[in-house]
Amino acid sequence: MISSVLPTYNRAPLSFVSGAGSWLTEADGRRFLDLGAGIAVNALGHAHPKLVEALTTQANALWHTSNLYQIPQQQALADKLVANTFADTVFFTNSGTESCELAVKMARKYFYDKGQPERIEIITFDGSFHGRSSAGIAAAGSEKMTKGFGPLLPGFVHLGFGDHDALNAAINDKTCAVLVEPVQGEGGIRAVPDQCLKGLRDLCDEHGILMILDEVQCGVGRTGKLFAHEWAGVTPDIMMVAKGIGGGFPLGAVLATEDAASGMTAGTHGSTYGGNPLGCAVGCAVMDIVSDPDFLAEVNRKASLLRQKLEGLVAGHPDVFEAVRGSGLMLGLKCKVAPGDVVNAGYAHEVITVPAADNVVRLLPPLTISDEEIAEAVSRLDAAAGSLSAS
Ligand SMILES: *Cc1c(COP(=O)(O)O)cnc(C)c1O
């Protein structure tokens, strides 16, 4: 008999009842060190006092009105995002995949309004992940996500990750945009080298097409910059955001330049919940913390510490691990064993990690993780890896 919850997930037999900082407490009382952060969502850990305060204050005042009216919290968060990024304008969504939907619509509408309605094709790369909506699965294009769900939304061209020749050859007079994650998350923590992101920007400019970045997982301080593309010194035309921006409250956004957003006039897009007062009040609190240069400097310092300890872990378990990769506190352990086995061994040692494609285990700790917690986490991973080599 089917479970009352639609069985689309293979869930671990863990059920957490509370959280504080980098720690989660299981129903049986065990405390787990959380290096998954709800898949890069709990950017400031669990129950951060500033976020709890923002949410409860707003909850006592007003939950929902509608985008038919002014929403001051939404205005405030948009102002913060515009002040801290390349963007001139922001639309709020409730998830990453909704951000993908709007990014695709915005890019196509841009060219439609410029008198080039034939420009509808969006180039994407293998290993990418853009969410589970119809546009999201068509954009990523992997058989795992699309099989059985046809007909797929047309207009996506899928290229090999890092295949520059194919990219040059693929751009033609039907091309509208290139969509890429600066650091692939689900794909196995694969970073686009800074040089390549720069090259991609040049290519987009040369052909007059739009650059869309999916920073749903790698954004909001995760790599040690507010947004990952800042490392390469280039800016996109459109950027998808979600996950960390709400710190655990469902919130997403599409950021864009004034030019790229020019087709999105009144009535062209909407959302009942997008930009609601609760989500935006929390988003403002997240942005106030994460956009502080001192906070980002700490993320970078802790990222080096974690990376250095992970290099030692890999060296100590050559039969389990192959390499460390990634950027900032978005790190991957490339495994020689099944990543699911490493994740399960971690559970047995009360440390949470997240599997990804390409035989990688992801480490996405809260950006607020302490030095002591980093040391404790790596020692738990060491014990977990030891239990695998022994068997
Ligand atoms: C998680 C993720 C998405 C989808 O976000 P949802 O909130 O699950 O819809 C899209 N893109 C990337 C890069 C992601 O990591």
What does this structure look like?
Pathway: Amino-acid biosynthesis; L-arginine biosynthesis; N(2)-acetyl-L-ornithine from L-glutamate: step 4/4. Its EC number is 2.6.1.11. The modification N6-(pyridoxal phosphate)lysine is found at residue 243. Pyridoxal 5'-phosphate binds at residues 96-97, 129, 214-217, 272. InterPro entries: AcOrn/SuccOrn_fam, Aminotrans_3, Aminotrans_3_PPA_site, Class-III_PLP-dep_AT, PyrdxlP-dep_Trfase, PyrdxlP-dep_Trfase_major, PyrdxlP-dep_Trfase_small. With 391 residues, the protein is α/β, with parallel strands linked by helices. It has two domains: 16-34 and 293-390, Aspartate Aminotransferase, domain 1 (Alpha-Beta Complex); 49-290, Type I PLP-dependent aspartate aminotransferase-like (Major domain) (Aspartate Aminotransferase, domain 2), CATH 3.40.640.10. It has twelve helices and 17 strands. It has helices spanning 37-40, 49-61, 72-84, 96-113, 134-140, 143-146, 164-170, 194-207, 277-290, 293-316, 339-348, 371-390; strands spanning 16-20, 23-26, 31-34, 89-93, 121-125, 156-159, 175-180, 183-184, 190-191, 210-214, 238-241, 252-256, 321-327, 330-335, 351-352, 354-356, 360-363. The strands form four sheets. The chain has a seven-stranded mixed sheet, with helices on both faces. Helix 3 runs parallel beside helix 9. The longest helix is centred in the last third of the chain and has 24 residues, at 293-316. It starts with 15 loop residues before the first strand and ends with a helix. The model has no long low-confidence stretch (mean pLDDT 97). Bound molecules: pyridoxal-5'-phosphate. Pyridoxal-5'-phosphate is lined by residues 95-97, 129-131, 181, 185-186, 214, 216-217, 242-243.
